[in-house]
Amino acid sequence: MTDSSRRYTLGKQLDVRILTTGEETDGRHDFVEAFTHPNYATPLHLHTRYEERLAILEGTCTVWLGPETLELNPGDFVTIPLNVPHAVKAGPNGCRSHLVTSPAGFAELIARTATPADGEGSETEMDFALFAAVSAELGDEILGPPGMTPADLH
After folding, report:
1. For residue 35, which of 15, 28, 91, 97 is within the disulfide window of CB 3.0 to 4.6 Å?
2. How far is 133 from 6, CA to CA, in rounded Å?
3. What does pTM read for this prediction?
């Protein structure tokens, strides 16, 4: 894969560069660099098949992880275990991070649902139906819309 074929955009929310695919590690893990646009929040969700490890490079983000609320800054790291409801929201300047999932899963989700960066235009939108369908296939459960936190489940 060329570097340009590894760059994707998920609507106006997330820019991703896939550094290592699951195919390259026999499914053990994948590794991406992501930029989450300012103030974007993920839907509340959990993973049933892979863990996430998130390291903040630039900017800030808030992670709602089960009962905890974590404010992450450059240099901070968090592991998101299997089956734990969580959501992530970028700070006002966005958030650049490294993300590892093991076994591999997130890079495949991006490659199958996002727009290649060289095909992005001003009209590029996220296909939520496709994203939800592939997420479910990969073992992710979307529990609520962006802005919902695990506390809202009780």
Report:
1. 15
2. 22
3. 0.91
Cβ partners under 8 Å of residue 119, min gap 6: none
Q: How many Cβ atoms from other residues are within 10 Å of residue 64's Cβ?
A: 21
Q: Which domains does the chain have, with CATH numbers?
A: 4-148 (2.60.120.10)
Map 17-79 to HEC letters: EEEECCHHHCCCCEEEEEEECCCCECEEEEECCCEEEEEEEEEEEEEEECCEEEEECCCCEEE
For 69-111, the pLDDT digits (tens) are 999 999 999 999 999 999 999 999 999 999 999 999 999 999 9
SS3 152: helix
Q: Which amino acid is at 28?
A: R
